[in-house]
Amino acid sequence: MAGKRQLGLFGENVKRLKTESVEDGALIKALNSSTACVSWSDDDRQWVRKRVLHTQRPALLAEILGWLLSVELDVPVPDGAVTGEGEDLSWLSEVLPYAQHWMPARYKYVQNLDDLGRMLALDAIIFNPDRHERNILVTTSSSDLELRVWSIDLGESLLGQPRRLAAAGLTLPELEVVPEQLPLPLIRDGATAAAGAAELITKSLLKSFVDEACHIVGERRSEELLGALWHRTRHAQRLVAEYLRKLETAQ
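Structure for PI3K/PI4K catalytic domain-containing protein, as requested:
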């Protein structure tokens, strides 16, 4: 499971699992037409596996870099790892037992609503247009009345497309699909806190995240990606405030 991790300046923040230590299971068909499968590692952990052959390198780059930023900004995400090489290169996201998708009628039982705000703040910063109800997981703890939300699936964000992210400047994604009944007044503090934390990320740390993710997938435009992402993090509070206003209008 995910917990607070300390990320370093010198790469190797993303776990690498040996290819022979990961065994594939059943296929999963996603809404965005990409194909994933369930896999098991030799330590008995279960993962959702997305291969570059099916998902493409931009999406894998977005997943890896998005995961690093999520951990840094305290956005709750399942544990992540990479495995394989070439067309077998894969992003692994740990399976959360008994997870369900966002349930509007039960938001009052969510114990970490601030984290839902952090999740939406990250979407604004990385230009993620794909935050629908199936990309917010909900798990239970000791009681069905104690729920926690988790962020998954950042592959559609512009983190994987350096030129498009640079061209986006300080614009925000269109809200084509919005999860129902987001309790915006209750998540605003978490969103604001994440925006403030994003503005405090140092350029050296951000560069280490970008360099590591680009190295894994073989993306050469790391400097362009760093410049675009650095610009957006410097204006994170503005972006997040505007994004929350858009969400209010859309609901």
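The longest strand covers residues 22-29.
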